């Protein structure tokens, strides 16, 4: 039996050990920010003390509201029985299928445990304490966090009317800049830069800067509206195009992303990649999802209809928003964090945007027709309460 006294002794020994461990860790590690992901539904259900999650909606992480491709689910069921075997470290079938689809060579493709991991690989390869990255002030925060992991600085360039100011970004480049990130469409603004602006940037960008086009949402656009950045890869430029199965393909839980680059640049990432970074289930699921054009079409149609539904609803309530081409939208509710918390009490999870310097905004993911309606109704209720109370 443990007496109370011993318990205290034990606790103090643990504390002491933690101090020792902390003392030997690299000092600057303590200063790294920890990413705050969208809250899981289960967590909110526990907090609200409810078991039934059927009327709760997570519109916080830009996931696919239709779920994964049914074909991917079927393939993964079959694959479950062979999970005693290590994955194919080279992901032969998935890379071959991607290469065919994109009309590139399989050696130009590197897979990651989500595109997040590839952003860390890029930082590993290109960054250190003497170097920096360039990005917009309201772009995906992971770029900056991954740069900080390698003690690199981030040069932040203000957006113009919620769009990347590519000319200003090129102008911000220094001799120590190694990566320039263009997320397109951009998260969290939902806006896009077009071929013309990209071409102007690519014309001016100096050789020592590698451009990363993060196209996490690109498949949500009709093919004729997708900017053609692969042409820069074909031209042999220092460019990585970053894509993912997390959004359009509805497989965020599996963690599969990939880069397309020249073979020479792909090889750089291979040096820092662990052999089994993309697990066997993920390879199977992604391969099947890639071949399910029908699910992708349905996803596109659902997102387009959802965007129109939210735009209509918000205009009716005279609430400002930023026009989006992706599966999420910035909504100006005045007090973002307060609205985020109030919506949670109404069983809807969105994302507050104070961390991105937009305390007046929330970001809401486009859901199904029903989910969008629930969101609009909840917002209406909150705004009415606000008018009554003030
Ligand atoms: C969601 C998102 C990703 C995808 O990350 P994964 O690690 O592939 O899930 C990448 N970039 C941006 C801008 C995103 O919004």
Could you name the CATH class of the largest domain? Alpha Beta
- Structural class call reads alpha/beta
CATH third-tier fold name of the largest domain: Aspartate Aminotransferase, domain 2
Mean pLDDT across all amino acids: 93
Give the total of beta strands: 12
Uncertain stretches of 5 or more adjacent residues: 1-10
Share in helix: 40-55%
What is the N-to-C succession of helices and strands?
A: HHEHHEHEHEHEHEHEEHHHEHEEEH
Radius of gyration: 23 Å
| Main sheet strand line-up | 2-8-7-6-5-3-4
Q: How large a portion of the residues is in β-strands, by DSSP E?
A: 5-15%
Whole-Å distance between the termini? 59 Å
Assembly status: single chain
Question: What's the helix count?
Answer: 14
Annotated CATH architecture of the largest domain? 3-Layer(aba) Sandwich
Shape: globular
